[in-house]
Amino acid sequence: MDVEEAIFKRRTIRRFKQDPIPSEILKKLINYARIAPAASNIQSVEYIIVESPAMREKMFSLVKFASSLPEDQRTPESGREPTAYIVVIINTDIKKSYFDYDIGAAVENILLGAVSFGLGCCWMANIKGSKIRSLLEVPEKYEIKHVISLGYPDETSKMEPFEGSYKYWKDGNDMHVPKRKLDDVIFKVL
Ligand SMILES: Cc1cc2nc3c(=O)[nH]c(=O)nc-3n(C[C@H](O)[C@H](O)[C@H](O)COP(=O)(O)O)c2cc1C
Which CATH class is domain 3-157? Predict the structure, then answer.
């Protein structure tokens, strides 16, 4: 799969088949994140892989899905939960600020890499950080920033033309995500 195909194919996925993701694939995704751009090349982003069924079950209630959807459509139904999580943490011994762009670049590498393995992902900032810290026994020197939920997709999602609202919607098993037009985001060509 070439880069353009992965970029256009990637959509946020929040419902998953229950086939496990091989551990080597999860490690490969983190290897893609490891070499992403970082400001001044100071690499403070680290990762926790959560793949055991017992831990996954506990993580599920600590992340919040699709707050733009009506409440009854947000959370994956039983048997459609993520089959792995990657928790994105910052080692503050290495960098204390200016790491948000580094996280963005690293996470995007994971999301695009996941597409190439047929996986779906949901990048999540709406998380219960202090509960995740206790559950995963993360020392205080780490900031817990985001969680990526992963699995083999059990829903579809497609882009729609933007018509005044950024709200995505769900229609049966299909997600619809408005995106602005190319001509509308190119402010100027000089
Ligand atoms: C920084 C960031 C935080 C996000 N947090 C959440 C979240 O907590 N829960 C969720 O369900 N989706 C979350 N998303 C996914 C967005 O809702 C999704 O990217 C957006 O609706 C566009 O859809 P697309 O990724 O399919 O293009 C987040 C995305 C980003 C970039």
Answer: alpha beta
**Are 132 and 23 contacting, i.e. CB atoms less than 8 angstroms apart?**
no
Q: Which atom of ligand 1 is nearest to the CA of 177?
A: 23
Give tens-digit pLDDT for 162-183.
999 999 999 999 999 999 999 9
| DSSP summary character for residue 16 | E
Q: Which residues pair with 124 in a beta bridge?
A: 147
Q: Write out pLDDT tens, residues 27-72.
A: 999 999 999 999 999 999 999 999 999 999 999 999 999 999 999 9
Residue nearest to atom 31 of ligand 1 (CA): 123
> What's the CA-to-centroid distance between 116 and ligand 1, angstroms?
19
Question: What pTM did the predictor assign?
Answer: 0.97
Pocket mutation for ligand 1, best pick of 12, 86, 148, 159 (most atoms within 8 Å of C-beta): 12
- Spans of all domains in the chain: 3-157
Query: 123: Cβ–Cβ under 8 A, 6 or more apart, which residues?
Result: 12, 107, 111, 146, 148
